[in-house]
Design brief:
By secondary structure, this protein is an alpha/beta fold. It is built from seven helices and 26 strands. Helices cover 17% and strands 29% of the residues. Bound molecules: adenosine monophosphate and magnesium ion.
Length: 422
C-alpha cells in the first residue's frame, strides 16, 4: 500500500468508528455454577442485611459489658450458642452465655470476651479475666451491607470472590452477557496446517492458533475455520460461512497485492467497509466492515444450548494483516473494543505509565506498538525486528505505545504501555 500517512485513519479515529458500530449484547440466564468468567447483565442486590444478625466474631462468652467493668469477674453460664443456632432466652445481669464464632448474639448481651481470657470457675460458672467494652468482637447486623444495596454492578466479571457474593445473596441463577461468537480464517497459498511439513516456499499457519487463543482470552466463543488458498472462490465460501458469526476475523490477503482478494470479496458480499486503512504499526492493512442492518443481537433469543455461530445477521468483519505481530496488535488494540461492547461492558483502556530501561528512537508517522517486558515499574523495549517477529512478541508481556512522530526518549523517561492479557 502506498498511501500517504494523511490518507489513513489514526488509531483514535478507528476506535471512534468501532464505538459507533450498532451492538446489542445478548443476555442469557445461567446457573451460578456455570457463570464463572461471564459479566453480569443485571446488578446483584442484597436480599437482606449482612450480617443478617448481630454476630459474634470470637469463640468465647457473650456478656453484658456493665457486668465486666473490672477483671477478673465471675458470671453464671446460662447456655451455649453454636453457629447456626439462636439463644432462646435473653441475658440477665450476672449471666454469660458461651458463644461460637458466627453465632447470633443473645438479647441483652453487648460484648464478647474471647475464650482465651476465661477460666472455668466450676460447673456453669466462668471467670473472665478481661474487662468488656460494648460492641467489642461483634459484627452488627447490616454492618457489611444493608438489604437492597447493590453489591455487584452490572458489567462486573464473575470471578471467585464475586461468585461468593452472588451465592451469599442466593442468586442461584444470574443474567449474564453471552460471549460473542467469532470465527477465525487465514488466507494464503503459502500456508500449511501445523501438523504438515511445509514445502520449501511454504510456512505453517500460526495465525489461527494465536488469534483463537487471544480471542478466547478476550471473552469470545471461537470457531477455527482454518486457512484457505488465495483462490477467490474458496475465500468467498469460507467468508460466507464466517459471516454467520457475530464477528469474522480474516487474516492475510488484505493489502493491494495481486493475490489480495479479501477486500473485494467482502464488498461483493455486501459488507460495508467502514475502515480500510490505518495509521498503526504494525498493521497498516486493517479492515472493519459491517454486513446487514440493525444491531447485532437485537431480537435474538440466545440460549447457551443454541449452536454457535448464531444464524442471524448483521455481522462484523475484521480484516487483519497476514503478518502475525500485526494481526495480534490490531486484535488487542482495536478489535477488543468491539468485543467488549458486544460482551456488555465498556473497555476502558487500561494504560500504565512505566519508566524506560533503555532509550527509544524517534517514532515515524504511524502509532507504534512495540513489544516490551514490564516488571511492574520499569519497561524494557524489545528489539523490533518487524511485524513477522512472533519470537520477540512471545517474550513480551506489554506493548509500548509510541504516538505518531513521537520524539526520541531517553532511558528513565515515562512511556505509556498496554499490557498483554494473560
Ligand atoms: P499478507 O497479509 O497475506 O500479504 O501476508 C503477509 C505476511 O504474513 C506474509 O509473509 C505471509 O506469509 C504471512 N502470513 C500470512 N498469513 C499467515 C498465517 N496464517 N500464519 C503465519 N504467517 C502468515
Ligand atoms: Mg497473502
Amino acid at each position: 500500500m502506498n498511501d500517504a500517512p494523511a490518507d489513513l485513519l489514526t488509531v483514535d479515529q478507528a476506535l471512534a468508528v468501532l464505538d459507533e458500530a450498532p451492538v446489542r449484547p445478548r443476555v442469557m440466564r445461567v446457573k451460578l455454577q456455570d457463570a464463572e468468567g461471564f459479566r453480569l447483565a443485571a446488578p446483584v442486590v442484597a436480599d437482606r442485611d449482612y450480617p443478617p444478625f448481630d454476630k459474634s466474631l470470637m469463640d468465647g462468652y457473650a456478656v453484658r459489658s456493665v457486668d465486666l467493668q473490672a477483671a477478673p469477674t465471675e458470671l453464671n453460664v446460662v447456655g451455649e450458642i453454636a453457629a447456626g443456632q439462636s439463644a432462646s432466652v435473653s441475658l440477665q445481669p450476672g449471666q454469660a452465655m458461651a458463644i461460637m464464632t458466627g453465632a447470633p448474639m443473645p438479647d441483652g448481651a453487648d460484648s464478647v470476651v474471647p475464650v482465651e481470657d476465661s477460666d472455668s470457675a466450676g460447673p456453669n460458672r466462668v471467670r473472665l479475666l478481661a474487662t468488656a467494652q460494648a460492641g467489642r468482637f461483634i459484627a452488627r447486623r447490616g454492618s457489611d451491607c444493608a438489604a437492597g444495596s447493590v453489591l455487584l454492578e452490572k458489567g462486573t466479571k464473575l470471578e471467585a470472590a464475586q461468585l461468593a457474593v452472588a451465592a451469599s445473596i442466593g442468586a442461584a441463577e444470574v443474567d449474564v452477557f453471552a460471549r460473542p461468537c467469532v470465527a477465525v480464517l487465514s488466507t494464503g497459498d503459502e500456508l500449511v496446517p501445523i501438523d504438515q511439513t511445509p514445502g520449501p516456499a511454504q510456512i505453517r499457519n500460526s495465525n489461527n492458533i494465536m488469534l483463537v487463543a487471544l480471542l478466547r482470552r478476550l471473552g469470545c466463543d471461537v470457531t477455527d475455520l482454518g486457512s484457505v488458498n488465495d483462490d477467490p472462490k474458496l475465500i468467498r465460501q469460507s467468508i460466507e460461512k464466517g459471516l454467520q458469526s457475530d464477528i469474522l476475523f480474516v487474516s492475510g490477503g488484505m493489502s493491494m497485492g495481486q493475490y489480495d482478494f479479501v477486500p473485494k470479496i467482502l464488498i461483493d458480499l455486501g459488507v460495508d467497509l467502514k475502515i480500510t486503512k490505518l495509521r498503526i504499526k504494525p498493521g497498516k492493512p486493517f479492515i472493519f466492515g459491517v454486513k446487514g442492518q440493525g444491531a447485532r443481537g437485537e431480537g435474538q433469543v440466545y440460549s447457551p444450548l443454541a449452536p454457535c455461530p448464531s444464524p442471524l445477521a448483521p455481522a462484523f468483519v475484521f480484516g487483519l494483516p497476514g503478518n502475525p505481530v500485526s494481526s495480534f496488535v490490531c486484535t488487542l488494540r482495536l478489535c477488543s473494543r468491539l468485543i467488549a461492547r458486544m460482551s456488555g461492558w465498556a473497555n476502558l483502556d487500561r494504560w500504565i505509565s512505566a519508566k524506560l530501561s533503555a532509550p527509544l528512537e524517534t517514532n515515524g508517522p504511524r502509532e507504534f506498538y512495540q513489544p516490551a517486558v514490564f516488571d511492574g515499574s520499569i519497561v524494557q523495549p524489545l528489539k523490533w525486528k518487524g511485524s513477522a517477529d512472533i519470537y520477540t512478541l512471545a517474550m513480551a508481556n506489554a506493548l509500548i505505545v509510541r504516538p505518531e512522530n513521537a520524539p526520541a526518549r531517553p532511558a528513565g523517561a515515562e512511556v505509556k504501555i498496554l499490557e498483554i492479557p494473560s
